[in-house]
Amino acid sequence: MMGRKEELLLLERGYASARAELMVLYGRRRVGKSALVRFFCETHPHLMFEGIEGQTTQSQVESFTRQLKSQIQDPLLQKARFDRWEDVFDYLTGYFRTQSKKQVVFFDEFQWMAAGHSKLVSLIKYYWDNHWKHSSVMLILCGSIASFMVKKVIRSKALYGRATLQMKVRKLSPRPSMELMNLQSCETALRFLLVFGGVPKYLEEVNSRRSFEQNLEHLFFEQNSIFLDEFSKIFNVHFKEPRGYLNIIHVLNRKSLSLEEIAKALKVRSSGGLKTYLENLELADFIRSYNLYDQPGKAKYTKYRVSDEFILFYLKYVQPNLKLIENGSGKDIFRSTCASSIDPWLGFVFENFCINQASEIARLLEFNQYVMSFGPLFQRTKPGFQIDLLFKRKDRVIVICEIKHQKAEINTQVIPEVEAKIKKFKLPKGYTIQKALISSSNPAQSLVDAQYFDYFVTAQDLFKG
Fold first, then answer.
1. Taking the CB of residue 129, how many other CB atoms lie within 10 A of it?
2. Whole-number Å distance between alpha carbons of 334 and 336
3. How far from the centroid of its chain's Cα atoms is residue 418's Cα?
4. How big is the chain by its Cα radius of gyration, in Å?
5. For 190, which DSSP code?
6. The sheet that has 455-458: what strands, in order across it?
7. Between vectors from CA 115 to CA 114 and to CA 119, what angle results, nearest 5°?
8. Is residue 334 within 8 Å of 221, Cβ to Cβ?
9. Are 345 and 312 in contact (CB under 8 A)?
10. pLDDT digits (tens, 9 = 90+) for 226-279
11. 238-241, long-range: CB within 8 Å, 24+ apart, which pairs?
């Protein structure tokens, strides 16, 4: 399966172990959680169940029973009626005892199966402790509402210490993303990734025979385009009360703000409710928080920014034209209203993309094992300045990264820009500075010869895998 080698290896290790396994998987909508587990299940004995959005517990039990009967050819089961989860789980307990091989049992969209409540989690705890952990079972609980899966499952008192694997299924890295789109050009693949991120379901819709502009026109700007209502679906699926989350997203669009600044913009208190909303947005991978490198963990110095590429593109280009698109009264909307500004905008989101790829960049530069923290640097002093990306390392090195997005080669004009930032930067005692250039194009030979930067990373490097 493309781009999921590490995740599949973890699942295979779990299956090969001599004990029962209880695994919890979560991740944003469309990131490929279900596809990952279903691919894994193809080579192992399994039972798969999927929760139904917005249904009651009784409806969930009935749906689960139908799915169970379709997978197990047992005459007694076909005649049975289960009205409670206990009835279903009692049957499964007996079934597990009759199996000679380890059974993979996959509960997909678990938050819907639980009807948003923690009662089912407590019930699973009971059956796990008293029956299933003594069986040859690999139970996988998977969900797309990260806040439920983390707070009500992983962090629950019921399952505390019982999960043998917790996996956040993340977006694909650049190389498998490019392969999924069936593209040969790193430059073209990067443009799509700056719009879609590494979300497999989105990338699958890219038609390699069409240009970048033609794809966007078809996928976003036609009257019945597939992604026209995806933005609202994202928030309606992930959150019970999406309006509050949407308000935060709009405030953070293209800006990095602190908790106090967000509260002021929304005219609300910066207390528990807002903090919970921000935490849930971050669990869903829609926003990211960053601390001052010298003030780790201090909320006062934490800033938040929208990190999801799809959301950034939608807010910039689709939402302002939504009425025009929905009415079908425009033709070639992207070309006529958006195309002229897309390149400068891609430069803005390239910085965001590189921050999202910071772990991969550290790996490419061979210091990933030394990284203590990373993120953009915002300076409290005035006049302020910004460092695009900064790594603080255990070996007492600060790596200052300059991020550039342009078609032409990067020449020596970048040196005074970086030097001006370094002069304003207060280096911690006992640390040394190294400098990195991360760019969409190659450095000019004159810049390489200047030996100013310690590291160069190009977009092509990110796609090497």
1. 12
2. 6
3. 31
4. 25
5. H
6. 371-378, 386-393, 397-404, 432-439, 455-458
7. 50
8. yes
9. no
10. 999 999 999 998 998 899 999 999 999 978 899 999 999 999 988 778 999 999
11. 238/28, 238/29, 238/144, 238/145, 238/146, 238/147, 238/280, 238/284, 239/145, 239/147, 239/280, 240/116
Which helix or strand (DSSP H or E) is residue 34 part of?
helix 33-41
Q: Using one digit for the tens of pLDDT, what is the confidence trace for 131-175?
A: 999 999 999 999 999 999 999 999 999 999 999 999 999 999 999
CA dihedral 366, 372, 375, 381 (to 10 degrees): -130
Question: Is it the case that residue 319 has pLDDT exceeding 60?
Answer: yes
Strands of 307-396, DSSP E: 371-378, 386-393
Residue 400 host element (H or E):
strand 397-404
C-alpha 264: how far from its chain's center?
A: 28
Q: What is the pLDDT of residue 361?
A: 95
What are the structure tokens assigned to 340, written together? Answer: 């002229």
Contact 106, 46 (CB under 8 A): yes
Q: Say what angle helices 57-71 and 85-97 make with each other, to 10 degrees.
A: 30
Task: Determine the distance from the C-alpha atom of residue 299 to the mean position of all C-alpha atoms in its chain, rounded to a whole number.
Answer: 23
| End-to-end Cα spacing for the chain | 15
Task: Report the greatest alpha carbon distance in the chain.
Answer: 79
pTM over 0.90: yes
Q: Residue 422 to residues 72, 144, 402, 419: CA-CA distances in angstroms?
A: 66, 42, 11, 5
Amino acid identity of residue 27, one-letter, is: G
- What does the mean pLDDT of the chain come to? 93
- Please list, in sequence order, all residues whose beta carbon lies within 8 angstroms of the beta carbon of residue 278, skipping any fewer than 6 positions away: 248, 259, 262, 287, 289, 304
Phi, psi at residue 456, to the nearest 5°? -125, 135
Using DSSP, state whether 336 is helix, strand or coil.
helix
Backbone angles phi, psi at 60, to 5 degrees: -65, -40
d(CA 142, CA 26) in angstroms, rounded, equals 6
Closest CA to 313 of 283, 285, 348, 282: 348
Which residues are registered as beta bridge partners of 398? 392, 433
Instruction: Kindly report the number of other CB atoms within 10 A of residue 155's CB atom.
Output: 11
Please provide residue 193's backbone torsions phi and psi, each rounded to the nearest 5 degrees: -65, -30
In angstroms, rounded to a whole number, what is the distance separating the alpha carbons of residues 292 and 25? 31
Question: Is pLDDT of 286 > 60?
Answer: yes
Per-residue pLDDT, averaged over 318-333, amounts to: 86
